[in-house]
Structure formats: C-alpha cells, structure tokens
Design a protein that fits this description.
- The longest helix is centred in the middle third of the chain and has 12 residues.
- This protein is mainly alpha-helical and about 70 residues long.
- The mean pLDDT is about 95.
- The protein has four helices and no strands.
- It comes from Limosilactobacillus reuteri (Lactobacillus reuteri).
- This is Cro/Cl family transcriptional regulator.
- GO terms for molecular function: DNA binding.
C-alpha cells in the first residue's frame, strides 16, 4: 500500500480475510470483553465514532499501522 494511503475499516477487515464475526471475536479477545458483530457493523458504517482504543484494537487485529485505516466519515 502506498505511503499515506488510507483504507476503510471494512476494506481493512476484508484484506485481513476476516468476517465481522471474526473481527468481533478477535476484538473480544484483545479487550477481554464481549464485542458484538453488530458493533463492528456500526463502526464500519460510522468510522468517526470509533473510540481511540478501538482504533488501536482494529489496527492490531488487522495487522496494519493505525494511520493506514480511515476513521473519518
């Protein structure tokens, strides 16, 4: 990916070969609390609402630098 290029949360998940359910399970492990598939769906629809901690979680589970993911609407 060219430097400075940002991809959507959905594209990041798809590139990681994960379903929304996979992402929810991975984030549940990462945070030690239940994260629902519906929450993943909402964050993909409205990325500007993703809390900073979740941004780091998404970057970790998708194995991307956080600045490669577009969290703006």
């Amino acid at each position: 990916m060219p430097k400075g290029t940002k991809i959507s949360l959905k594209a990041a998940r798809t590139n990681a070969n994960m379903t929304q359910e996979d992402a929810a399970n991975a984030l549940s492990k990462y945070f030690g609390m239940k994260i629902s598939r519906q929450r993943i769906m909402e964050y993909e629809k409205h990325p500007a609402t993703v809390p900073p901690g979740f941004g780091h979680g998404f970057a970790t589970i998708y194995r991307l630098p956080i600045d490669a993911i577009n969290f703006a609407s």
